[in-house]
Structure formats: C-alpha cells, structure tokens
Amino acid sequence: MTPVLSVLTKRADFLAANAGTRNARAGFVLLTRPNGGEGIRFGITVTKKIGNAVVRNRMKRRFRELLRAALPTAGLADHDHVLIGRAGGVERDFHLMADELAQALDRAREGRGDPSGGRRPRKGSRK
Fold first, then answer.
1. How far is CA 14 from CA 11, 30, 67, 80, in A?
2. How many helices (H) and strands (E) does the chain have?
3. Which of 20, 40, 64, 116 has the fewest C-beta atoms lying within 10 Å of its C-beta?
C-alpha cells in the first residue's frame, strides 16, 4: 500500500520547512522537515525570478510529477518536502532531475544537508 501524499497549502508550513534540512541541486532545492506525524506532505515554490507564468507553471507541473513518482517509495515518513525551483531546472532533463531528487532524498534520510555557511543573510538582519 502506498502512503497518501498531501499538499502543503499554508504559508506557515512552507516557512517551517525552511528551518529543516536543505539539499541544493542544479535545478531545485529540496527542504525536508519532520511534521509531527502528519504523513508525507509536499509543497512546490517557483518564484517570478525563474520566468513568466507559462515557464513557472511548466516547472511546477514537472516538479509535481517528480514528487508524486518519488515520494511514495523514497520519501521520508512524517516529513514535509518542499521543492524550490531554480533557474537551471526549467530546461533540465526530466530523468536527470529524477536522479537528483533521489540523491537529495537519500541525503535527507541520512540527516545530511548542505552547509548553511553559503547562504546570504536575510534582508534586514544584521550581525
């Protein structure tokens, strides 16, 4: 029996996932975070920096299909999974992205993420 996937719709869930494990690839960034027994949930974000509405919607359709294929078998149980689109993912080969998603999910399962040192500080925060 395959687990039921549910979709993240609330902004608070996306913001909470941002505090979780981060795995960046050429076409996307995968965020994973435990959700306290809610099952496997996923969300997709593609900003206007990527392109116009046609390009963004195409990318979201591709991401949705990638997640629906991968999460029932390779997804982390009781975790939220958020894919953030990057400019390199618009024309990237679908099978290559599927392999990259599998690698990112494996890293997340091991608890390994990208180091946070490379991230830019948030706008307005001073240290």
1. 5, 12, 16, 9
2. 3, 5
3. 116
Label residue 12 left, alpha or beta by phi (over 0 means left) and psi (-120 to 50 means alpha). Answer: alpha
Tokens of 61: 């359709």
Of 1, 21, 10, the C-alpha closest to 79 is 21
Give the tens place of pLDDT for each residue, 29-64: 999 999 988 899 999 999 999 999 999 999 999 999
Give the three-state DSSP class for 75.
coil
Check: CB of residue 32 under 8 Å from CB of residue 17.
yes
Q: What is the DSSP letter of 117?
A: G
Domain edges within the chain:
5-109
Q: List, for residues 4-28, the tens digit of each pLDDT value.
A: 789 999 999 999 999 999 999 999 9
- The pTM (predicted TM-score) of the whole model is 0.86
